[in-house]
Here is the input.
Amino acid sequence: MKYPHNRHRGLQPAFTLLELMVSMTVLALIMLLVFQMLDTTQKTFQSSRARASTFKEARVAFEGLTRRIGQAMLNTYFDYQYPNNNSTLKPTGYERKSDLHYVNGRAQTLLNGGNFSTHCVFFQAPLGFSLRPENQALGSLLNSWGYYIKRGNDNDQIPSFLSSYDYADTSRERYRLMEFRPPTENMEVYGANLRSRYTTDWFTKQIHLNSAGGIPFSRPIAENIIALIIEPKRSEKPGALVLAPNYEYDSRRFQKINNPRDETKHQLPPLVEVTMVAIDEASAMRNEQVHGSLEELVTPNLFTNVATYRQDLGQLEKTLIDKKIIYRVFNETVAIRASKFSDPQFLR
Here is the structure.
């Protein structure tokens, strides 16, 4: 029997031209999405790496600042209590005393004006800093120490052997985190008059001496630090009593307000919450070029009351975002190891 010839019997199944075009289009779209994802990932990585490198100086300065605050000490002791602090009269009992001093608060107030921003802190700690070779092996020498933010140019940082005329056009106005660190042989926390026993302006005199061309007891440790907020605390537990409602704490405040039962008298705060806000150099440079000089980014009404800390920080962040300024906020709560804060009812 003869079967009719089927001319399609030898043909193999295959894709049509339309199917190939659709497949190639889908493949191209997938490859495009993959390349876009890789490009976005690479840019994010490079941005994060550049951001970490940009704020490396600020991070190192913040770690050093918090570590040294945690080493603050007062070395308290008990001594005779005299009526009206008159040592010629018969003592009436004993009271806690200290020759050392811890103080933090608004820089404009504590440093008597000037181009100072937000808060500052000053204290004594066994940091062992000395310029005398015979003392440098003694690692626990007592030093006065402190931190504050100063706004100004960097003319005073140009080495003396370089001509200031040649570098006049390169002067940069910046916010700088300053570290106050006189060597142990220049520590002036003790009053010149032993009858007054204490002095409360030992850091102010030395800082302004430096700005007037004296011994350089302060040095910049980080640039573009626009805010330093320091809040002493009793505890981090919710509902704990606020220790410094206006961010002000002074272990010798009792002298100024004449209150011998002040709870801060010769006591270190148990905790100190430190917040630092830094901006990048490109933003600072652009800000200076646009406004002719560095614009004030932290208004004086911010960070004056601990109850509005979150709102103040949010307002500052909004200002920086609106001005397209890249910034970073550092925050840490430091425990002061030497603090032995006692209840006010036991103060004498």
